[in-house]
Amino acid sequence: MAFLTQKKFDFVSSALPKDTFVVVRFRGAEGFSRCYEFEIELVSTETEIDLDQVLSNPAAFTILREDGDIPFHGILAEFEQQHQVDEYVFYRAVLVPKLWWLSLTHHNQVFLDKNVTEIVREVLKDGGLTSLDFDLRLQGNYPQWEYICQYRESHLNFVSRWMEREGMYYYFEQGEDAEKAILTDSKMAHKEMEQGKTMYYSPPSGLDDLHREEVIKTFVCRQKMLPKSLKLRDYNEATPSLDVSGSADVKSNGRGEVYLYGEHFRTPEEGNGLAKIRAEELLCHEKRFYGESTIPYLRPGFLFDLKGHYRLDFNQTYLTIELMHEGSQAGFLLAGIQKGLSELEKQPYYRNSFVAIPGSVQFRPERKTEKSLFHGSLSAKIDAAGSGQYAELDEEGRYKVLLPFDLSNRKDGKASAWVRMVQPYAGSDHGMHFPLHKGTEVLLTFIDGNPDRPVISGAVPNPDTPSVVTSSTETPQCDIRTSGGNEINFQDTEGSERIVIHSPDQDSLVKLGAPLEDKAWYKRMGFDGLGTVSALADYKGTAIKAAFELVGLASGHDVGVENGVELRTANGLKVAARKKEEAIGGFTSPGYATTSVTGLASHSVTGYQDVSTKGWYSFSVVGTYDEEIMGWGKYLAAKKDTVVGLAQKVYGGITKAAGFVKKGYESVVKLIGSEQKVVAEEIEMTEMKTTLTEEETSVVAEEVEMSESKTSFAEEKTSIVAEDIELGESFTRMAEEETTVVAEEIEMTEMRTTLSSEENDLSGESNKMAGLINLM
What we know:
By secondary structure, the protein is α+β, with helices and mostly antiparallel strands. It is built from eight helices and 36 strands.
């Protein structure tokens, strides 16, 4: 375009010839941790420019100067075709660096076991940048994070947010053909500008020309009051007893303290490091210098030395952190399009305003990127590495989840870190836990709304996994049912309160409380109740039902069922009836059994009793023994009865000499004189094994037994005769003893007679003595 007589600024799109556009005017802004942006007004004689092609190709804006051009490379975020004046068409372009591409990508994703440096590099590349487009100049050591979530935010915001948190920031270096983003965390990364380090302070005076040499025209210092110290505190669920805090001094003569909670750090070391960064963030705002200049090569991220200021301590090294550009060359356009220009614009000019801090101060970015907070709950599904029924847990009882927005296609426990589950009851050695299955839908909530800190708040039903209590349930119930079919059911309906515990293994059930009229409930569980559904439903107390076997602790007592009813202890002692229709039919001990009674015990058998001893049998009574048999007794081994005290046998079958025995009993009572007190009562039975037998006795069997019993009665008759003889002999002995007693009584009478005679003699002598005393 030949209509320009001189130009100070240039704009080129790689999609078009170099002389397609002429810069009319521009404004630009750049600074730490922001993408620079130049809004450029252009003019061209081309009327049919392909806007798509311009937006899709790199572009460059250049400030032209004799000592070296100042380029700004990048891409176009916007390109606008405006009005036409004569043959000239006006356009508007917005130039930004390639890093701006990251603002176009909005994502939801999870990063696992990575540090911030790795995450930033990965996101930059995902946003379209190559290793030639950025450089990481980092000095710090950054810890690895188990779980970091990017949720509903652009790549640029996500990277900026984490860099601001960690004290990282970025600026740009301009090369001959492209720009490069410099990511750093240290003032050691900053260097002097290539065009010159020294800047001169020269304020305007009088009718100072705006277009004179490149100088700093104004330089203002602004200082703020700072707090004295800063303190951080957080909670780390991995170390709940650890005081997770950090602190740092800000300004020794400052006032007040900044206290921040929930900055998401895990150890005191991380807390102190983060507190130092937050303190440096405050310090770099304490003293800032605001200036205006005509120096086009001032750039954020570069150092300069100020000279010529009237205040000598201001003449030092500074770091530029922000810059605003402005320029125009409208006055060099042909006269036909100069109408309406201001006096300033009638000649080309460039000027800027900037912000700087002392070069000795470490810059830290202000945390201005909005946090992506999560409000409410998020649906997720339980994940697991294996294909088993239950999802795996870690040593703290945590689960892994699949987030619905994650597009990484990571499965088998690789889609998330371990996530805690909220429990209604928990403690060091107690708590409550119901295991979740792989694929179960759960709701996630987030501590402080932070997407990086999820917890499982609960499991929720859906059409694929409906609730155990629904509208099809007969009555409102509280129900706990496991996937294996174990179930605890509570009914709180007034007047029908009950608890039912059911296990499908061996069809077992315990019901406490009111009857259950809903018999379909039992059938749903797969069994027909205790004998019948009606029997169990109508039972108004406690019902226990088991099909084959019901046992308790091995070291305690059991209630067992084996084709009938059985009470069984862990060491094998059993009392059982073999059929449900029978009463208790036996007592079995595989080793030994001891029965001890303090007080009164009664044993009554109506019918048949068989006591069988294989070995020896000892029965000892200390005190009084009373045995009453209404049928018959049989002893198949040697039998020894020892009685210390009184004993009585009463037979309801065959009896003989009962009256004589009674007389003998009374005689013994008279001889003993009084009943002997019971001093001890101890019954010990060792090595006794009783076998519970099942036999149904027919009338024929009973007749055979009665025949055998007659023989036994005959033997007993003989024994009674022998006992009669013994009793006769004992009476003879008693008669002899009585004779002895009579003789002794006669002897005592004679002794009394002798004593009486001696008394008479003594009485006479006494009288004689009395007479002698009187004579004297």
